[in-house]
Write a structure and sequence with these properties.
By secondary structure, the protein is α+β, with helices and mostly antiparallel strands. The chain is built from six helices and four strands. It starts with 6 loop residues before the first helix and ends in a 10-residue tail after the last helix.
């Protein structure tokens, strides 16, 4: 996809731009998407904290059943912390044997502080080594299910 306008253009504009001009259709999945057409010249935290982003989220909620916002990692970039306050749920994805426990704990604590009280954080481990995962399953009966 090579959009002519993207999220940064909309958020950085003082005008009441038409939201439909941002929307593109992914031909592979048929998903409706808004992409960042280019790197922003403005600080993204200022763009995400502004009224244009809130207006975009309100418009998306009135149009779509499910909205997925993919953000950069929590640690090095603050974008996800500004977006967390708008989320109904947060999926926190870590890479198996790559993200340290300390980094994960710090990131989850930051998201917890940034999100609304009723927003759940769902943890996912990505690219897990299946041979080690099957070894750990042997001990599953020793642990109680969480309520």
């Amino acid at each position: 996809m090579e959009p002519s306008r993207g999220l940064q253009d909309f958020l950085g504009s003082d005008q009441q731009d038409n939201l439909t001009s941002l929307i593109a259709r992914d031909t592979l999945t048929n998903a409706t998407v808004i992409v960042g057409a280019r790197r922003s010249d403005s600080a993204t935290d200022q763009l995400l904290a502004g009224p244009a982003f809130s207006r975009l989220i309100r418009a998306a909620r009135s149009t779509f059943d499910i909205i997925i916002i993919d953000t950069p990692p929590v640690g090095p970039v603050v974008d996800s912390l500004y977006i967390a306050n708008h989320a109904d749920a947060i999926v926190f994805v870590t890479r198996w044997s790559s993200t340290s426990q300390q980094e994960a704990k710090h990131s989850v604590a930051s998201l917890t502080d940034a999100k609304r009280p009723d927003t759940d954080i769902i943890a996912v481990i990505n690219q897990q080594d299946q041979s080690r995962a099957s070894y750990m399953r042997k001990y599953g009966d020793y642990y109680a299910d969480a309520d």
